[in-house]
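Bug: token stream looks shifted between consecutive jobs. Job 1:
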Amino acid sequence: MGDVTPDADAVAAAPDERPADERTGNGRPAVPVLFLVIVTLAVSALGFVEKQPCRAGGWNEPNFQYRHACYTDIYPLYFVRGLAEGKLPYLDESLEYPVLIGAVMAGTASALSGISDPLLRGRAFYDLNAALLTLSAVVTVIAVGYLAVRRPRDALMMAVAPGLALAAYINWDLLAVALSVLGLLAWSRRRHGWAGLLLGLAVATKFYPLVFFGPLFLLCLRAGRLRAFAVTTAAAVGGWLAVNLPVMAVAPGSWAEFYSFNRERGADWGSLWYLFQLTGIPALGTSDVSRINLMGTGAFLVCCAAIAVLALAAPRRPRLAQLLFLTLAAFLVTNKVWSPQYVLWLLPLVVLARPRWPTFLAWQAAEVGYFVAIWFYLLHVSVPEEGIGPGTYLPALALRAAAVTAIAVLVVRDVLRPDRDAVRADDADDPGGGVLDHAPDVVALRRRTRAVCV
């Protein structure tokens, strides 16, 4: 670690002054791993049971998945993308997902080729992918426990989250969530190469972890840890290229489908832009895709500029999890797509950024409300005499966005008032920050001890 200063080394070598019940004899957090695993498996089992009406045959009946709120992308994509016929993603059939999801789809499909009945094979495809997603959930919860090193029981918030049960098996998002959190854990252990590799693979699974690099750069800039950032970024680029270049070389058009699909799609369910369209809000309620792209990107960049000022001007350097949450929340609120399973992206960051049960449960209630509303609204779109109309669906959409925004406001307050930050209440700095933890400021927008104003 050539970029660790003597001050940081001294901190790393200092005696562990945490309470005995928060650490083990070798200095690792006393995370109740077995208990976390059991709880996560129990909650995941509830999620699997919630999908059971569809799994029992309902996926093949029109609108059944909306009436019973048991929708998933996994089962239908097995047939729609030719996997049932032995086709390979990208090579034989275009796929609107990044390459690692395509690899998982191809691998699990090939493992089931011996099942003759296509419907049974499709269900087995769902089951096998659900098992992988359950493993991802367990890995994520354990990693969150180790990231919350001074407060490992905070991981229970994610383990028991209703959002985890309801959204785990809609799509393959938990694979990216697990890789992202493992990358953050590697960063916290100052394994910058591994951190970058895992984050690069996460971006190759779902694109959202790309936004993590902005906050990481800002905090490394303020702390004078740019070498660690450079190593992490280089490893991330290398990892991403390693899995993308082969597909880019043999099937460039199919590889680009993910990017063109997201560029060309309009305002989708769950987004504020969709709300603006349905309510006809002037200037914002447009169906012009290029205009939505421009406004959404512009709004996100404005949020990023505000986060950058906060990162460099806050009286005390924000914790990494706080800035990651703020950036991802800004991305979702300004994005033209906000699918129900995106709650999984936020779960670990909310737990790490603001581990307060009342806030967490209020947000989860809003997510559950939206989960119910979206399926019954889609039922109404398909069968107008059933389900719920926009008058009920749009308030649920707005409430979810308001809940995420409210958490962001509270996180900003914690950044500006570090004494109100639950993680820093016992004189901690940034337990998951790796080289950022207890590092002195080098660049800041305020003059502080040993800081240089810019």
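Job 2, same session, no restart:
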Amino acid sequence: MSRVLVLGAGGFIGSHLVKRLKSEGHWVRGVDLKNPRYAASPADEFLIADLRIYDNVVKALEGGFDEVYQLAADMGGAGFVFTGEHDADIMHNSAQINIHVLDVARKNTIGRIFYSSSACMYPEHNQLDPDNPKCNEASAYPAAPDSEYGWEKLFSERLYFAYARNYGMTVRVARYHNIFGPEGSWHDGREKAPAALCRKVAMTSETGVIEMWGDGKQTRSFLYVDECVEATLRLMRSDFAGPVNIGSEEMVSINQFAEMIMAIAGKKLGVKHIPGPTGVRGRNSDNHLIREKLGWAPSLPLDLGLRKTYAWIAEQVAKGAQDSE
């Protein structure tokens, strides 16, 4: 039985990762500022700790681990990342966590360490055409992310590989593309487009109108969380260090995405386009490298993951209505 550490285990992806690791029979320690919001963690140990504090990272890594998954970060959706109001915190907090984690890890018995980067680190100039974004791994340089969040992710990627070169550490780096699913933020200001649109559709009557930031012609691909976890484990246990995209190649416009949600809900709603942060005009995962290196790539149709996600969010909306009565 392997000893596994998940940093950021109270977050959306981290909590799903812990469940998967426990299902495989590993001993798991989870660490986060908070417990998972929507379901108790099955981790064998769960430490509430601020990883910006060095001594807390020392405690988190005590005992040695076969695998360390570093998902802890200060992040959120467009309404959090792209307004500019949180740039200093995003860069400072996430960079400080990664610097502490690597410094402590190199002094301890660690088999492999995984770092979750983001597709937000890709250059803005390659994502101006919503119908033909360029997001293959080799396109990262010359670097020009559209947000400080993306710049921090790029810096931390380089930090992990520098520690690997200088200290003989075994690292794995993935670039996540718009991960979604149940048990994630959906109404606290940090939710991303899938959860926000599911919430709006669920809360709107059959003759109503939902608001959407931008013209809705911007494009994205969205990856269901179970496939993200599968890809993460495959990369961690492979001979490939990365960085590699973990995302879907099923690209849709946000208008099309909203229509898919309405169809699942059985509603035909109006859409009011309003000003708001939207990020780049187009983004889609390029999965050539993950197929080449891992012999596998995500394949779950967007509609199937969206049905599970909408059902969960609609249930949360209904619970909220009941609680307010």
